[in-house]
Structures are given as C-alpha cells and as structure tokens.
Specification:
This protein is mainly β and about 280 residues long. Helices cover about 0% and strands about 35% of the residues. It contains one helix and 18 strands.
Length: about 280
Amino acid sequence: MKYLLFLIYIGLSNRIVAQINLVPNSSFEIYDSCPDSYSQIYHAIPWFQPYVPGSSTDYFNACSLDSGILVPNNIIGYQYARSGNAYAGFNAGNFVGGISREYLEIELSSTLQSGYGYCVSFYLSLADKAKKATDGIGACLTTTAAFYSSPPWGLLDLQPQIENTAGNIISDTSSWVLVSDTIWSTGGEKFITIGNFKSDSASAVVVNNYGIYSSAYYYIDDVSVVLCDSITGIKSLEEIDFNIFSNPTSDKFTIIIPTAFQKDVALKLYSSLGLLIFQKPFV
C-alpha cells in the first residue's frame, strides 16, 4: 500500500505544556521520621508552618506509634489518605472570638514564570469530630516564605490567588473535596501557603452538633501546582521549518523537524482514503 498523506500535528493549540507537579512531597508520604505526637508537620519534609514561634499544624501517618495521629483512625476523626498512607491537618478557625488559624507551607521545586497559567489544586476532608465547617480555605503563592510571629496563631495577612468558592462550605467528612483554580503568574512565585485567609466575619460557618472539637478542622492531601497554559512562549511551526523526503514513497521516508519543536510534535499518518493508520509522539 502506498501512503500518500502526512500530517504533522502540534498538540494543545501550540502551547508548550509540562505536566510536572511543582509541589515536593505533594501527598505527604516522605518524612524524615514518623510523627510521634501532634503539631509535627515539619516531619513531612520540606513542609513547614509559617508561624515561627511554634508549630501546631498536624501530620498524620500510618507509620506512627501514636494512636492520635494514625491513618485512617486518629483523635480527630476517621479518614483514609487520598493517596498513600499520610496527610496533613489544620485548624481553619474556631469562630468564637479571637482569631485562630493554622497554615502549612512549602517551597516549590521551581519558580513560576511570568505570563504562564498554573493549575493549583488540593483536596480537603472535614474531620469527623470537628464542631465547625467553613468555606474559607485558599492558597497563596508568594516570592518569599510567608513567615510571621504575630498575632499568635493569627490570621495571615495575605491575599490568596486560589480560594474555595464563597458560601461553598466544605462539610464532607467521608470524601475528599477538590479545591482548584488557575492563576496567571506574575513571575517569581516560589512558595505556596494553604489555610483560611478570611477573617471570622467574612467566613461562612456552620455548626456540627455532633462535633466535640471547637474548630473547623480539615485533613489535606494531594497538593498540586502544575503548568497548564501560557500566553507567552508560544511556538509556531511553519511549512518551511520541516522536510519530508522521499515523498511520495512506497517504503521508508525521513522527517526533519527543528530540535526546539520535537518534544511538542505528534506524527499522524493517513492513507489515501483519509484513514488514520499510525500515530505517535515525535520523540
């Protein structure tokens, strides 16, 4: 059979997209040692809590010998990890006067580039024994680490780029709830901090009468920051940029494409009747 039609296709509307999660230890599986008590998010390296006088954000792992921080059964509830055997937990607010917040933070594996869209997501589950539930959970990406020391365990004065929809109270204790959105980077963002950045008055809250702990306490797992779109750096492949020879042919042929495009090109081979008979990435 003689194949007559060739199509070189650059996928995803010519946008250069890399599906690499920039969040190290995104599902909290890596640790320097098993947690043996509460308030040990720092064992899930390199996660940390931005409040510098002390740590209170929790790390739950099935490897622990402390029943209070085990997975799936722990002192605040019962939940399997969405991935693996571990997750973190934080207080999103008590809402009884006096701000009470916990956050978790990590340095990304690479700096965000200006003009590119990044898909940011994480999964939450309300702890069974939490007495409150809220809508005020978000993520803020910053160029430097968001350390603070005052007010004690207080509201972090940052404007999150990613935020759960206002009024969408996350009250599911059995499943993992996705919070996600896309940000357009201004360039240089290197850290992500997650928690409730809303004031008590701005947060929507419901009370769980079966809860015994006064806070809106959430488990968190599978945090992700992925390059998903761009408005700059778009490449265009013109006809003069590549060669196909010999054409026509009944046997072998050679395609030459500039190196800069090779990882973004898919090859599709059609018969003279217009049927797709072969396709694969160029490299």
